[in-house]
């Protein structure tokens, strides 16, 4: 085998070189194919059917889509999804940026604080939800209401008032998401040329000018990554709501994915849930491509 | 040499890829051990490890008696798992799950019709119990296994301290609830107690599940039988009256009648009765085991639900034994069902060994008495409630969407205290009509 292969191998050397990396990638790609792309394709496929696992699926064309898009509960969820998705994403970027500015440096104590700040990211969301539910407890026994009590503000029904539940969920989302952004921005900050700061200090610029004209332009690539990730993750917000309010009270925190979940798993309408998910996928795809496009255009400029 | 190494590398890559594929193939397969073996039955129950331990004893006794082996799978997220098994067209042979799911399963073709006469010992189940397993086409689709009815758990020591008696009417319920909230029953000098626990979140339909007790006590129904179909009944005068009463007195009345955060509480998070913050909880008897530990057996008692204008009916539910469709082991399945409903099988399932949760609450086998088997008089309160003052959700239709829509609507009414109950319920009624129409049941 080895002897006979040598001669033609030289001729095919180039193609084999090209194939080999793919072969090494194959296990990973196969895993992605089996656990990501095939289920995704199946989901798109199912969105055109009335799904009856045992009796056999029934083709209904675009029926699931018209039903989902015409459902007023889904329409209500769009607003909540946008508020929550945009709020959590931008809030987490802003807080992440501030944290990064505060915690940049080499001192050992800073490393310790950074680790502590990063903990929310590695904590299970279910645990985080339980924690915040305790903090939001609607009487003065709750941590936050207790603190507000010292300021003379009466107990607030954070999660039980439809006017505040969405904002309370957003705060938890920001708390969970900010440290991740902080790490990316910290990496960006580490690359900022120190001499620029020194020069600026000699010119006597204000803190705001330093941020605006040196720091922000320098961490553009990091912000680009953070923004792209936000565009991908923002609208599919689910776990934060699932663990904290599950869409309640009175549907005031219902987002697109909790609605899809209820449709699929409480009402057994897998076809409708798939259609809703495909719609979200398309919107997310569009958003990501747009953000990336804007970013590249900005880079060229 | 280099080539050999390269081909070896190539083989390694291929092997890794093959491995990945193989694992994936296993994942999508049925995974049931010996599904073709006629001497083994695959049985699924919706159980956590705690109650699974009790089922283990039941099935061990069955295998000892008949020689039929049981491949037992306790499944927590039962319905999701069942859907994925259904898509492989290979169902578990026997399933034990909630009574309310029968219509849903039957409409999906997952169940085998059952002739009660073919199950040995079928006569020991009352006609009332058997009537709860009749599907939309008039045939039976389940075998009654365990039943329960909700009762009022109430703090005995708090009543005693305040010189009160357990409430028997809605009015007394409010009086006691307010006293529990205002008169410091735990004697710590702080106003930190509440009257009653309510799981009022719409998640999983909890508002409708807990609120159904009050609806029936007020003379209202969610849907009503109408010839061969059903019609929505949430716009009736009784429904408007009852929901208004609940809104005005429980959710939007004096502070402290319900625990704080009731509109977003689910059963898992509404632990105020256990924690000693709330004095009453209208709930199922499976909580007795939990409550005996905290707040403690001596501190609370089990009493019938207080009566509303139309009586004191409470929600009854429980578990049925279902046979998976097209499994081809009918004789063995019948043998297992006969054992499960026999006095011997039910007794094993009713007793707690090693502190594990019993899986039969009120036995469907009418020769047994729950209080006697358990040696616990409180269970006679539960059994009496089930036998004389209880209703089940109609389970011939697929009740899940009906329950969910009712819960969403009630939760909204109870959350917005200024809302108009009549128009809210009118809207709900239209939604329910749509749900029934989807199932071709609206007449």
Automatic annotation (TrEMBL), chain A:
Topological type in the membrane: Multi-pass membrane protein
What compartments host this protein? Cell membrane
Q: Which residues cross the membrane?
A: 19-38, 82-103, 115-135, 165-192, 213-232, 270-291
Describe the location of the ABC transmembrane type-1 domain by residue ranges: 78-291
PANTHER family to which the protein is assigned, alphabetical: ABC TRANSPORTER PERMEASE PROTEIN (PTHR30193), INNER MEMBRANE ABC TRANSPORTER PERMEASE PROTEIN YCJO (PTHR30193:SF37)
Q: Which family does it belong to?
A: Belongs to the binding-protein-dependent transport system permease family.
Its protein name is: Sugar ABC transporter permease
Q: What is the source species?
A: Streptomyces guryensis
From TrEMBL, chain B:
From the UniProt annotation, give the residues forming the signal peptide.
1-25
Q: Which InterPro entries match?
A: Bact_solute-bd_prot1, SBP
The cross-references to Pfam families, in alphabetical order and at most eight, read: SBP_bac_1
Protein's organism: Streptomyces guryensis
Record's protein name? Sugar ABC transporter substrate-binding protein
Transmembrane region positions? none
Sorted alphabetically, which keywords does the UniProt record give? Answer: Cell membrane, Lipoprotein, Membrane, Palmitate, Signal
